[in-house]
Specification:
Blueprint lengths: L2 H22 L2 H8 L16 E6 L2 E2 L3 E2 L8 H11 L3 E5 L2 H4 L3 H11 L6 E4 L5 H9 L4 E5 L5 H13 L3 E6 L2 H11 L3 H7 L4 E6 L12 H5 L8 E5 L5 H10 L3 E4 L1 H5 L3 H27 L1
Parallel strand pairs: 1-4, 1-10, 4-5, 5-6, 6-7, 7-8, 8-9, 9-10
Antiparallel strand pairs: 2-3
């Protein structure tokens, strides 16, 4: 299997789901539902300098089952993430390889709404209709995979998200993806400022799309290629507080953490420890920099 085969297969499945959803509810009806919703919750980053997007997912293609759908309490888990200080919660809605469901996103968004924290739809999105679905489910953001679609399709998804007040996390895998992201993000900075909060993010996924294994060192190698004016997200391979501290010191603003939080027995404690270690590393670097300048 090639990386293209994996993403092509996921995109084809996603298109089938989008068409089935559109057959059940025409886009005009879906848009009518959106008019009655309160504004989408904004993503706000901590002044302490590092944040987590904590993930709710039941399965990973690279690891296998993480939790049982029958045993997992979505509300309890996302509230544990919120209590630990997560800035947002990523929710997998892809059903075939991740055991996800839009109902998980709805549950997460409803639980997080009183705290003002956004839920992010993470899926292999291919159609602006799916962005509207995310908004209808209560999401505050969406993840878009740069490698998977033509530029025009990515632009349509981004514009649909910003139109409805959602933040966008663009996911890159290599230098070509980063170059495309810079071209897409730059012209939309003014629109994002009008949306409010942190509306544009760019992430590096260090997973190899052929083997689905994490590539050691890729996050550190690629961070300097990311534009300095966009919030930078480390994705995959962040499993320990030491990982979070290292990546914060290297220049990342956030980490998206999934499998480690889903498999551990104390997600609140692990998320809190990651945030503490990362912010501590930034404080240590700042003290050293100040001492060197004095």
């Amino acid at each position: 299997m090639s990386a293209g085969d994996f993403l092509a297969g996921m995109a084809a499945s996603s298109r089938e789901r989008a068409e089935a959803a559109r057959a059940r509810m025409p886009v005009s009806e879906l848009r009518a539902r959106l008019r009655d919703l309160p504004p989408a919750p904004r993503l706000h980053l901590s002044p302490q300098g590092f944040d987590l997007i904590a993930e709710m997912k039941l399965r990973s293609p690279a690891v296998g089952a993480l939790r049982s759908a029958g045993d997992e309490d979505v509300t309890r888990r996302v509230l544990a993430y919120a209590d630990a200080g997560a800035a947002a919660v990523s929710v997998l809605t892809e059903p075939s390889r991740f055991d996800g469901d839009l109902a998980h996103l709805e549950q997460a968004a409803a639980a997080l709404a009183p705290k003002g924290l956004p839920a992010m739809r993470k899926d292999f999105l291919v159609d602006p209709y799916q962005v509207l679905e995310a908004r209808a489910a209560g999401a505050g953001g969406v993840l878009l995979i740069l490698r998977m679609l033509p530029r025009a399709a990515i632009e349509a998804l981004m514009d649909a998200a910003l139109e409805h007040g959602l933040f966008v996390l663009l996911e890159a895998f290599d230098a070509d993806d980063i170059a495309l992201a810079a071209q897409l993000l730059g012209p939309r900075r003014t629109v994002a400022d009008n949306v409010g909060g942190e509306s544009l993010l760019l992430g590096i996924n260090c997973r190899d799309l052929v083997t689905l294994q994490v590539v050691p060192g890729r996050l550190e190698e690629m961070v300097d290629q990311l534009p300095s004016w966009v919030a930078r997200v480390a994705e995959s391979g962040v499993a320990t507080p030491e990982d979070a501290a290292r990546l914060a010191a290297r220049g990342y603003d956030l980490a998206l953490v999934g499998s480690a939080l889903m498999t551990g027995g104390a997600p609140r404690e692990l998320a809190g420890a990651m945030l503490g270690a990362a912010r501590g590393a930034l404080q240590h670097r700042a003290r050293r920099s100040g001492a060197a300048c004095s």
